[in-house]
Amino acid sequence: MHENSSSFSGQMGFVLAAAGSAVGVGNLWRFPYLTAKDGGGLFLLIYLILVMTFGYVLLSSDLAIGRRTQKNSIRAYQSMDPRAWFLGVLTFLVPVLIMTYYAVIGGWILKYAVAFVTGQAGAAAADAYFVSFITNPWEAGLYAVLFMLLTAVIVYRGVEKGIEKCSRLMMPVLLVAIILIAGYSLSLSYTDADGVTRTGLQGLGVYMMPDFAQLTLGKFLQILLDAMSQIFFSLSVSMGIMITYGCYVRKDVNLNQSVSQICLFDTFVGLLAGMMIIPSIFVFSGMEGMAAGPKLMFVSLPKVFASMGAVGPFIGMAFFIMAGFAALTSCISVLEAITANCMEIFRARRETVTRVLGIVYTVISVVIALGYSVFYLEVGLPNGTTGQLLDIMDYISNSCMMPVISLCSAVLIGWIVKPDWIIEEMERDGSVMPRKWLYRFIIRYVAPVIMLILCLQAFGILL
């Protein structure tokens, strides 16, 4: 690595920073609406199985590659096998694309946090508030710029003083806040105009109980695609971020323990996020409120907070501040992956690279933010959906490139360099990698097949 002095202070600093990358918009924005869309408990069951198998394998692989090669993603794969140079380029391009829109979503969250802090909770609950905001070029652009600049400032400060320090502060606050709000959501009760009473515990049942009667092959494949894309997005795997973070991990850190802690923390927060959001929406909006899709956080939730009475604005303020923390730690990790690669490629200092990237992505973030107004367009995607600029970038990076990277990476590790190449690094500190047999089996036989199916589905070949 170019910046050899960069490293996390120890295992706790690394785990919190990696968890900060993993716990983000994917948990608070994506996870609840995917769960609601895919039948609640059915999605949860499949997701949990995939986290314990594929999530464990993919995260272990990325971290071990980073620490063993001491190179960022664009050169790490090439050092494993010269023929895999293209895989490093693809892995580098994923955060490059994600960074184009992550600050835009962060800006949306910042806008709502400001609205609740300044006493505009009632206005934020109006039907047209979100659409009015994202279609206002000046306002949407301003909040994207503010969020992008805040991210760049933290990355500019470096690994230990910037990324780790930020994560150590934000992650405990986020965890406490999400537990308190989830507990409050389960205590809610509401009687509508028809005299029907709905409770948070009933909403928990909607969230947690799988309905196997709905399960068909097509439904299973859709849930599988959604759950795997959520794992990519949530655990920050197959996008070079964890390879970069692996470079900063000291040799005496127990990677096996770290992987388990990161997976557990990320899954726990995701489950709590669903427990916080879905029961509260069910209480005040019934099943109709679940149909909001990606707008669940920005349309349905403010209405829920408005229905809570005097305590609603305070709960809403706590939620959006917490969501802002989560989005920021993830956005930092995406920019750090790009920064570290550029430092290595151009042999440049962190300060110089961060300044240039900060300017470039501030401009790009504004363009993407204006994709709902000045640059509005609708493009049909191969998976049968339509999307604007933000959706296109998300589809290319998350639904297409990540399964391709995971497929190629599984073939490289499983059949070319062999699984023991990863296992040796996981056991470098003297610990024993648990479930070695599972790692070898999945990376060689299961991952290539599943990733191929996801690729075919993402490209519209298998629907």
Automatic annotation (TrEMBL):
Location(s), subcellular: Membrane
The record, for CDD domains, names: SLC6sbd_Tyt1-Like
Q: What's the domain of life for this entry?
A: Bacteria
Q: Which PROSITE patterns does the entry mention?
A: NA_NEUROTRAN_SYMP_3
Membrane-spanning parts: 12-29, 41-65, 85-110, 140-159, 171-190, 231-250, 262-284, 304-335, 356-375, 395-417, 437-462
User: Which keywords annotate this record?
Assistant: Membrane, Transmembrane, Transmembrane helix, Transport
Report what the protein is called.
Answer: Sodium-dependent transporter
From what organism does this protein derive? Selenomonas ruminis
